[in-house]
Amino acid sequence: MNERFLRLLDLLDLLDKKAIYQGDLAEIVVNSIDNSWFFDVTFDEPLEIEQFEEFARRVDLLHHKQKSISKAFLGVKYHNNNYSKLHDYYDLVLRNLAKQKPRFNAMIEFEIEQNKNRIEVVCPKDGTFVTDMLYDIKKGLKEYGFDVRLATRICDVQPTIKSRMEKQREDYQKEIMLNVDTTSVEKRYISYNNSVVRGIKHTIKDIPISETDLLEYKSASDNTVFAFEGKITGVDQRTINSTTELYTLLVSDENDSIYVKKFVKNPDEKVYMDETKVGMLAKIKGNAIFDKFMDEVSITAINFERTNYVMPKDERVDNEKERRVELHVHSKMSTLDGITSVTDYVDAVKKWGHKAIAITDHGNVQAFPELFKATKDRTVKPIYGAEFTFVNEEDMQIVQNPIDLSFEDAEFVIFDIET
């Protein structure tokens, strides 16, 4: 153990554990451009995985302790390595990769067969894509001091990835059903002091959105009280004074959203409101007012009810034997049309077992890089498209006062307007 390694242990607050961390610090490489430091460490032999993780974690956090270090990297070698701990380090590398690249999650349950420094990953018949992922695993093990050979072997008796995903989905749905209150709709709603909402007469879309619309509605209807229901998608609470709390809820339905304000003075009602969570359903009866601070119409609740549990997320499935392929998808790159990211679309079709998806945004191909990245694991085939507008040149004169002149002799004015 050289003096440089002892100083490193001291820097990592591990000097009291030098009996565990036996090794040498070969060199420190400092990158003067970005102030990153590389520590080349040689241990006597591979550490227990928990001890190595702690050492690596402290090196990774060195930049918080030493302001001169922007980022710290660790390279590991061993004086003696019989590969007896290779299995543990393989699992560590795989877990770390899965945090950065979710497709590696599919490999976590795959069995491996080890013979000294050779690992064979046992794959189901639909796991041939694993071969392309071995490079990242080999690279990660190399950084941890393990020079290994990796290969795959297809095993027909292994459960396929598709069957595992279906089982996970079924288990998840069973868990949801066990945890969800199965009482009737009327009993799902709870209120404070029996402050129930009787008779839902409106939707959020019925509520005026501007001060002018609200004045016109009040003139025509003689009141601005609305009774509606929706899902709570946002909750905020702040103290007004020593006796009053203000709860601001964002309530949404399939078409629109609105802010609902509830002023609370009673301590018991405060406990009830504190248990109001995002994802619960709510019934509200309240007075519409124009909030000058928010510059929009909001509802001050008179009566408020909510469910006593968070509603489970939509878990729609596609059970058709022959799955469809969507050939006309507009992402958020289609202005005023699509609002969903390509990654979310691809995740959905993966869950439903669709084989391909086509992106056809309006007049642009800006979503192509994201589509390429989202389908790199090859479980879904990307179809690259676009939706363009054709112009009949006979009906539109693009060039005014044309002149028969070569480009080399012409002068150009470029006028660019950003919208």
Descriptive labels:
single chain, 419 residues, alpha/beta, three-stranded mixed β-sheet, 26% helix, extended
Layout of helices and strands:
Layout: H1 3-11, E1 23-31, E2 36-43, H2 49-60, H3 62-65, E3 71-78, H4 86-100, E4 112-115, E5 118-123, H5 134-143, E6 149-154, H6 161-179, H7 185-188, E7 189-191, H8 211-221, E8 225-239, E9 245-252, E10 257-264, H9 267-274, E11 281-291, E12 296-307, E13 326-329, H10 342-352, E14 356-362, H11 368-374, E15 381-387
Parallel strand pairs: 2-3, 5-6, 10-12, 13-14, 14-15
Antiparallel strand pairs: 1-2, 4-5, 7-12, 8-9, 8-11, 9-10, 11-12
Helix pairs in contact: 4-5, 10-11
Largest sheet: 5 strands, mixed, barrel
The H-and-E topology, N to C, reads as: HEEHHEHEEHEHHEHEEEHEEEHEHE
Low-confidence stretches: 181-187
Write down the overall mean pLDDT.
86
Q: Order of strands across the widest beta sheet?
A: 8-9-10-12-11
- Quaternary status of these chains? single chain
Total strand segments: 15
Radius of gyration: 31 Å
Beta fraction of the residues? 25-35%
Shape: extended
The chain-level structural class is alpha/beta
Distance between the termini: 65 Å
- As a percent range, the share of helical residues equals 25-40%
**How many helices?**
11
